[in-house]
Design goal:
329 residues, TIM Barrel, 12-stranded mixed beta sheet
């Protein structure tokens, strides 16, 4: 198992497949993009499968989520999904995406064994979308969402970040839109993970504010105590249910105590926390000929040193040197 010194067990593996992205969201990266990782530094398909196999069969991982950058840009993605679906015990397989390629890939990914998707969409307004992402691709995201639903990648989950003065007034409209289509909506507080290091807590729309905006239009009933488990989102039944809405309060109400994640970057580094300042190099050990027992020991050691909390808001907190696109969501 992947245990830390506080008794938490990591059963959820987030695997970044690339640091590249075809959008330029202002809260993630600058308009000109970033220097991408050289191909030689990225884990190969065979290396990825070996490490995911190790995580599932030897380290107790039960869920694998593919992230990026934008994971749909990874060549051979369906093959990676199929290889993971063939593992024993079979992990739950999900993917976080901006949705641009889903209209084309949803059906093949479902056939390969993908269980569900989380799609990022911060606005229903194409003009605001262009302002946020610097790309005119709003219609492609909507088409991708519809394709995911048709392919059976359910529940289709939608992630939205609200920004003050940009799209904060869309909270209720986004929820109503998702309810009409059967999508599950999750709002996420904007986190200090941008490459430009321009995050400003005062400009962040907090979970409390989001809840207040939704409560003006909907009746929100908290889920029963204990229903959340290790999920990052606080969830409410909407107008009596069964539909739900979630808010991930990573900044104002962090959920570190129940965290069950371990992360693998596209270049083969283990991260015990999204906001970690240190990494453990599995790629170097793997390419130097380490066997599975040695790799597993490295991974266990990395997780054992996990801190009690990320520490956002504390004087000692320092933003990670890597931006979100390089860490993986």
């Amino acid at each position: 198992m992947l245990l830390d010194s506080f008794g938490r067990r990591a059963v959820d593996l987030r695997v970044s497949l690339t640091d590249r992205c075809n959008l330029r969201c202002g809260y993630c990266m600058p308009a000109e993009g970033l220097p991408w990782l050289p191909k030689a530094e990225l884990l190969t398909d065979a290396e990825l499968v070996r490490l995911m196999d190790l995580a599932v069969t030897a380290l107790g991982v039960r869920e694998i989520r593919f992230t990026g950058g934008e994971p749909l840009l990874r060549p051979g993605l369906a093959g990676l999904v199929a290889a993971c679906a063939a593992l024993t015990p079979r992990p739950e397989l999900s993917l976080t995406t901006n949705g641009l390629g889903l209209a084309r890939l949803a059906a093949p990914l479902r056939e390969a064994g993908l269980d569900r998707v989380n799609v990022s969409l911060d606005t229903l307004d194409p003009v605001v979308f262009h302002r946020l992402t610097r790309r005119d691709r709003h219609a492609d995201v909507l088409a991708g969402l519809a394709a995911a639903e048709t392919a059976g990648l359910r529940p289709v989950k939608l992630n939205a970040v609200l920004m003050r003065g940009v799209n904060e007034g869309e909270a209720a409209g986004l929820l109503e839109w998702c309810l009409e289509r059967g999508y599950e909506l999750r709002f996420i507080e904007q986190m200090p993970l941008d490459a430009q290091r321009g995050w400003d807590r005062e400009a962040m729309v907090s979970a409390e504010e989001i809840h207040a905006m939704l409560a003006q239009r909907f009746t929100l009933t908290p889920e029963p105590r204990g229903a959340r488990g290790s999920a990052p989102a606080e969830r409410w039944l909407v107008d009596g249910g069964p539909a739900r809405v979630g808010i991930i309060a990573s900044v104002t109400r962090p959920f570190c105590r129940a965290c069950d994640r371990t992360r693998l970057t596209a270049d083969g580094q283990v991260r015990d926390c999204l906001f970690a300042s240190e990494e453990t190099d599995l790629r170097g050990a793997l390419r130097a000929g380490a066997d599975d027992a040695e790799l597993a020991a490295l991974w266990r050691t990395a997780m054992w040193g996990k801190k009690a909390a990320a520490g956002i808001g504390e004087p000692s907190f320092a933003q990670p040197s890597r931006p979100m696109s390089s860490i993986g969501g």
